[in-house]
């Protein structure tokens, strides 16, 4: 008896699942169409189609019907949506301004729809786990936050551009049991800190990721920004009650927030730390922080900051296991040959585990690209991703010799067999191309690209993907000529 499938015979369920998975990865629009093929394909495709959604009145004529369907509580959104995005300028402002793109009757119609259906629509998303909400002071953000705070399964709150002026919406403190909190562009008024304390207190035992990128308040008397320490965001223990801890916190990303030894009780489970300074030459991480971190046995696996102080270097060589190191996120200081200050000890200590290294924003005086520098990098044989700036030939010729590109790139391919991505770009004196004309900038880029494409790989074929400077590349590799070539982006015909 033949087992061949005939026309019209349904495919096995596992085959349909495999097909929908592939379509989901490559062509989401076709996945939506797949729902209409049959009841079986709809059952498979629908959870994927409605798993993530967004709400926006900007150039989205179907949003009113979407909100009305969501508000009914019986739509696929209620059954399947776990991720929601409300992007910038997505909602109709409550107060009309001349610059608003929507005016007149159209605005009135959409505002009435938003007023009637937005909150019920949000409340219907009972399975929602993650939301990213870009706030506008003129939008109904209080209603949105209040509705989101009532959802029982919400775990992730990413609130961007939350530039609330006083008073800060108290609805923030109604969220609880969150795993991930990210707040950006928030003004740290005393009242704001009070609300954040109450908010964080409701997620102390569940919080795994905390990111805070605030607006700093200028203190005219001190002629500096007001300082906020990490522990200022948490209630202090009183009497015999211990200070609160964050037993699940594994990742911390802060901008302009001071870290000191007194911050350690909140960070005993930390493995990822990203610190950005707002002011040139500022040091938001006290030396005592690193000492206390070492004494507490906290071993970071991912560290991102501008520069490593001697105390930070001492901490990093006290253990093994650092996997990612990124320096120079906002590099303003001029630390001559900073790489030589930490490279020999830190890279040697973590050479067996380090998989990502970025020196992208270090000045040419801080990372010189010498033979000695790269010998330290070559020992990190597990490196998967490497990023750095390559000094242009005319930069400080009197300093230590720079390894030429025709030697550097083949050696990287040979000495780092696990390297999968190399991002390299030309760098003049100074961290950025500040003060340079567009023509001079383009000339440096053009000369660099030509230098990369002239490199001949005689004895090896690079396994890594090569990325270049902004508005340039990426690069492909020609197996016949054994050279990289720039892949020019082609625009579709009009």
UniProtKB/TrEMBL annotation:
Cross-referenced Gene3D superfamilies: Ribonuclease Inhibitor (3.80.10.10)
Lineage: Eukaryota, Fungi, Dikarya, Basidiomycota, Agaricomycotina
Organism: Ephemerocybe angulata
Name of the featured protein: F-box domain-containing protein
């Amino acid at each position: 008896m033949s087992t061949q499938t005939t026309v019209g015979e349904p495919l096995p369920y596992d085959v349909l699942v495999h097909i929908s998975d592939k379509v989901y990865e490559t062509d989401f629009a076709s996945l939506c169409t797949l729902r209409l093929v049959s009841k079986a394909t709809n059952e498979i495709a629908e959870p994927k189609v409605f798993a993530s959604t967004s709400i926006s009145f900007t150039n989205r004529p179907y949003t009113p019907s979407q909100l009305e369907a969501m508000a009914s509580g019986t739509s696929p959104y209620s059954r399947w949506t776990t991720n929601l995005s409300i992007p910038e300028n997505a909602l109709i402002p409550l107060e009309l301004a001349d610059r608003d793109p929507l005016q007149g009757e159209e605005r009135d119609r959409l505002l009435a729809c938003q007023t009637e259906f937005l909150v019920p629509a949000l409340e219907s998303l009972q399975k929602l786990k993650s939301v990213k909400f870009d706030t506008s002071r003129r939008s109904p953000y209080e209603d949105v936050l209040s509705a989101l705070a009532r959802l029982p399964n919400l775990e992730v709150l990413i609130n961007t551009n939350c530039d609330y002026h006083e008073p800060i919406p108290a609805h923030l403190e109604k969220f609880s049991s969150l795993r991930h909190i990210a707040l950006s562009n928030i003004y740290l008024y005393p009242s704001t800190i009070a609300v954040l304390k109450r908010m964080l207190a409701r997620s102390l035992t569940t919080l795994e990721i905390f990111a805070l990128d605030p607006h700093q308040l200028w203190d005219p008397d001190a002629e500096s920004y007001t300082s906020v320490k990490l522990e200022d965001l948490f209630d202090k223990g009183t009497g015999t009650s211990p200070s609160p801890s964050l037993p699940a916190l594994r990742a911390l990303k802060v901008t302009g927030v001071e870290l000191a030894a007194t911050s350690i009780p909140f960070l005993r489970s930390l493995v990822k730390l990203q610190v950005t300074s707002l002011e040139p030459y500022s040091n938001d991480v006290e030396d005592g922080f690193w000492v206390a971190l070492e004494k507490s046995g906290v071993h970071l696996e991912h560290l991102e900051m501008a520069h490593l102080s001697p105390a930070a270097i001492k901490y990093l060589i006290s253990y093994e296991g650092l996997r990612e190191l990124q320096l120079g996120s906002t590099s303003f200081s001029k630390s001559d040959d900073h790489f030589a200050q930490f490279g020999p000890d830190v890279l040697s200590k973590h050479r067996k585990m380090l998989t990502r290294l970025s020196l992208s924003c270090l000045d040419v005086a801080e990372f010189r690209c010498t033979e000695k520098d790269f010998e330290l990098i070559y020992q990190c044989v597990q490196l998967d991703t490497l990023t750095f700036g390559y000094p242009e030939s005319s930069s400080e010729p009197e300093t230590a010799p720079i390894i030429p590109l025709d030697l550097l790139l083949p050696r990287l391919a040979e000495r780092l067999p696990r390297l999968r991505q190399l991002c390299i770009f030309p760098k003049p004196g100074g961290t950025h191309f500040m003060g340079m004309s567009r023509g001079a900038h383009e000339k440096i880029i053009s000369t660099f690209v030509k230098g990369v494409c002239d490199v001949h790989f005689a004895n090896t074929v690079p396994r890594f993907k090569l990325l270049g400077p902004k508005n340039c590349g990426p690069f492909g590799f020609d197996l016949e000529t054994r050279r990289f070539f720039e892949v020019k982006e082609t625009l579709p015909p009009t």
